[in-house]
Amino acid sequence: MCSCTYAAFYTDPVKVQHKKYDFIVVGGELTQHHHTAGSVVAARLAEGGNMNVLVIEAGISDERPDTAILDVPFFALGLTGGVSYDWNYTTTLQQGFNNRSVPYPRGFILGGSSSNNGLIYLRGPSQDWDRIANISGDRGWSWEGIQPYVFKSEKHVPSWSHRDDRGEYDPAVHGYGPLHTSLTANVSDLEYHVLKAANELGDEFSYNLDLNSGNGLGLGWFQNTVGNGTRFSSSTAYLRPALSLYTNLDILIETRVVSLQPTPGDNRSLRDFRTVITSKTPNSLYLISLTSSYCQQIDVGPHILLTASKEVILCAGAIGTPQILMLSGIGPKEHLLENNIPVILEFPAVGRNLQDQPVIGFQWSVPYNTLSAFTSNQSAVNTALLQWQYDHTGILASSCAFNNVAFLRVPSKSVLFNHHRDPSAGSTSPHFQLVFYNGFLPNSGQGPPDKGNWISTGIVLQAPTSRGTVLLSSNSIFDAPLIDPAFLQTSWDIGVMVEGLKAMKHFFATSAWSELSTNPFHELPDLNSDEAFENYTRSFAFPIKHPVGTARISKIDDKNGVVGPDLKLKHVQGLRIVDASVLPFAPGGYPQAQVYIMAERASDLIKEDHNLV
């Protein structure tokens, strides 16, 4: 064994090339909601101090001065695009978005997108998990099977104000884990009107005590990854506590994994992928070519190879994971050859099946104070920031823009079912959601008005049928991949958005809203015309940033999948994938919670395989 000291941060792979690691975790992040898994798995594998673990993160540290703003819960929705901690990706031109390319934020930081996402924690309906169990052939992924990991990962805590939140969540469905979740500390007039309207409509908008209970439908309260007035990410909840407890965990940041490689000299029938090739700069190239039975290494630039004695765990998310696989010669044969990449393992499903959920917002001015008045007053914001910096209290210490949400289904008599099979997981899983925002929710290409008080509603397509791709733009990890979520490509998808519009109109036609004098934002379409609404949606909709499916889980003999039920890459040894890329369909909840739970179970699966339990 190496006598080197562990539990350290590094920015140069040279510093760790002579250390020996049992596990290498690629991606200490989470995808807006999806690379969380790396931090969770690394922390769990380091428990006990017996296994040496290395986490490799392409992004920056989450403790730099320019990332301090990430900890402020109120700022969660303005933390992406054009900043040092974001990959600053964009999509390809989207036909369903009137040929627009839209920003596609991903966390470029330790903790990944869990460090700069919208904080929402929703596990999704029980039927989602049961469907994953059926697709994978493993009942351990069922709702019943994942319950131990639900309780092991998350803990509900009071908001900083300790307001009474009884009747807004169910304590029985929350656990004792390191990830803290809470409800808002700031209840507004908007919530009063939303709950009053839902009560007036009864069963159509039935009240759901806890949307994390497995019941996937109804109107309830958002739960957020906020504790003690600050953001909880996979880094703060898992990785940093592990660093303070164990000496066998190293973190290598600001370093790209160029590709994975069959372990040199390996000649077994199943290729063994326990070696990663790392680089600091795009000038470092590492080529591989096939001979009769092994990979020939060709040195053409500075690079560092690191090998795990037991496993490499790939946690780079629904965008990064398929990119790394394809750069390693694992993917669709023709696409690899087009990019001059030798095909080590032909895998047509890699990078396919990309799904995400589009959202369109509607805004109205109202005659009472909303967050719009606060956010447009820079002096008030500065004062609130000083308060938060002092003791993590005040308006900024809570996620208070999105507090209520309704998960709904298309009516059973809708003509959509005359032409489409129901793509949801079942009768208690949603087709769309209405989310309520106590301010101005700008759509793509829109800016907030200079003055006034606003409320907004977003319609989110929860169960899309469109499927896109993640493809390579070149054979370099330093070039952004081609991200094509294929938004609104099917008549079902746009039809569900229209059904969402009808539900929204019905909701706002209740007497709860009649007492308000509201004025729509000047760009809103004629809401009585489906055609105008469709054009508005295609012109202004944007991604909710929940990409999944590009390395989907399936039964071991299913050729349409990439990983088996144990999350091991099929047809190879030594490589496992633990992130949102393995989720086989767009979730009925929010994927952040799903990935935390999945990573907890994956950690146990890994330990069982290596007799570490």
Automatic annotation (TrEMBL):
InterPro entries with a match to the protein in the record: FAD/NAD-bd_sf, GMC_OxRdtase, GMC_OxRdtase_N, GMC_OxRtase_C
Q: What is the residue range of the signal peptide feature?
A: none
Q: Which residues form a coiled coil?
A: none
UniProt domain Glucose-methanol-choline oxidoreductase N-terminal: residue ranges? 317-331
* Organism this protein belongs to: Lentinula lateritia
Q: Which cofactors does this protein require?
A: FAD
Q: Which UniProt keywords apply?
A: FAD, Flavoprotein
Q: What is the lineage of its organism?
A: Eukaryota, Fungi, Dikarya, Basidiomycota, Agaricomycotina
State the name under which the record lists this protein.
Aryl-alcohol oxidase-like protein
Q: Which family does it belong to?
A: Belongs to the GMC oxidoreductase family.
Q: Which domain of life is it from?
A: Eukaryota
